[in-house]
Write a structure and sequence with these properties.
Cytochrome p450, globular, 405 residues, 13% strand
Length: 405
């Protein structure tokens, strides 16, 4: 951050940017930068990605997330902007958003995902076996990466063989957006859309029971009395495929990285007779290391926040990674308290756009951690972990040395 302090009121973007979000990438924990922003520049401006404001305090982010009339998701839901076809319900406002969520909710509510637990546990034990047999390896390639893929493919009835292409295009979109390479971003979006259109077309030609398959349900669904368009169905399917994989991979990888660095916490979780402690630990790991650090919005009318004047059309980042470390919302926010109560973190967002797949991500993380802890005496880092760039927070490589039971 280049400005030490901001004036009491500034009209429009400052002459000198307040921060560069990519400066916190690599191995550096962005928590220290967020803390400085919350204290000295709680509404910070960056020139990255065409220029955007960042809200960094918990209360400011909560108010903005609840005020969908002033802070719209319809034209911007990510920073950097990912472009491509609109992905509803993420990129929508009420009443459209409400209608789409109502269609999707039955497939992602707690009761629906609980049915998946035996299959998730089976996948975890199968994926863990090679790591345990040889005493370690890269936990990302062996576990955190393939697990959400397997679960999503079962949930959507998509062949496992189709997922490498899905993931390739998904990561290409994010990578091009972070690099601000518009030609590569356009190509990646076109490739991803074509891939998802193929999946949707195959399901249309071989429909399944809408009660158990969300894509088939979209064919029969209506909003405001009309059927969903093909573009809307493709957008929804694309969102489920991309968001449901990368965020869970990163959330679980972050949790394993934190545990690999804390043998005492490992032992505590193994020794506890309380089956709910791992569940509570998952919430704390998500608070401390939210996989998605930012949610995007567009301002629809003039608004003043913390002495900063935002105008219609301005782009805004709700930096939930900063909100989760705000001392105004959490006592001793940088400490890991696995029994923290309450824990109203924003890792899954806040308000109407709270992640619809949160229950699925939670159960995958919980089961994976339960099995890792039960089947090991200890595990530790066996080399440097590779981190993902902002606005994601995750590990792309996690080498572990494992002492199996």
């Amino acid at each position: 951050m280049e400005n030490d302090r901001i004036s009491a009121f500034e009209d429009g973007p400052p002459a000198t940017p307040d921060w560069d979000p990519l400066a916190s990438n690599g191995e550096t924990d962005p928590a220290a930068l967020y803390a400085r922003l919350r204290t000295e520049c709680p509404v910070a401006y960056s020139e990255r990605y065409g220029g955007f404001w960042s809200l960094t305090r918990y209360d400011d982010i909560a108010r903005a997330a609840l005020d969908t009339e002033t802070f719209s998701s319809a034209t911007l839901a990510t920073i950097p902007p990912l472009g491509g076809p609109r992905r509803i319900p993420l990129e929508s406002d009420p009443p459209e958003h409400t209608s789409i969520r109502r269609i999707l909710q039955p497939y992602f509510n707690p009761a629906a995902v609980q049915v998946l637990e035996p299959g998730i546990r089976r996948h975890v034990t199968e994926l863990l076996a090679p790591l345990l047999q040889v005493g370690g390896g890269d936990a990302v390639s062996a576990l955190t990466h393939p697990l959400p893929i397997r679960v999503l493919c079962e949930l959507l009835h998509v062949p496992l063989a189709a997922f490498p292409e899905i993931e390739r295009w998904s990561r290409a979109v994010v990578g091009a957006a972070v690099r601000e390479d518009q030609n590569a971003l356009r190509e990646a979006n076109e490739g991803f859309a074509a891939c998802v259109r193929g999946i949707v077309a195959e399901r249309r030609s071989e429909p399944l029971d809408p009660a158990v398959n969300v894509i088939s349900a979209l064919f029969a669904a209506t909003i405001e009395g009309r059927p969903l368009s093909e573009a809307e169905i493709v957008g929804i399917t694309r969102l489920i495929l991309s968001a449901g994989h990368s965020t869970t991979t990163d959330g679980l990888g972050n949790a394993l990285l934190r545990l690999a660095r804390d043998a005492d916490l490992q032992d505590r979780l193994r020794a506890t007779p309380d089956p709910g402690l791992v569940r509570s630990a998952v919430e704390e790991f998500l608070r401390l290391d939210a996989p998605i650090q930012s949610r995007g919005r567009t301002v629809t009318r003039e608004v003043e926040i913390a002495g900063r004047h935002l105008r219609a059309g301005d782009r805004v980042s709700l930096v939930v990674g900063s909100a989760n470390r705000d001392s105004a919302a959490f006592a001793d926010p940088d400490s890991c308290e696995v029994q923290r109560r309450p824990n109203r973190h924003m890792a899954f967002g806040y308000g109407i756009h709270r992640c619809i797949g949160e229950h699925l991500a939670r159960i995958e993380m919980r089961i994976a951690l339960e099995e890792v802890l039960a089947r090991t005496r200890s595990f530790r880092l066996n080399g440097p972990a590779a981190r993902r760039p902002w606005p994601q927070l995750g590990v792309s490589r996690l080498p572990l040395a494992i002492d199996p039971r």
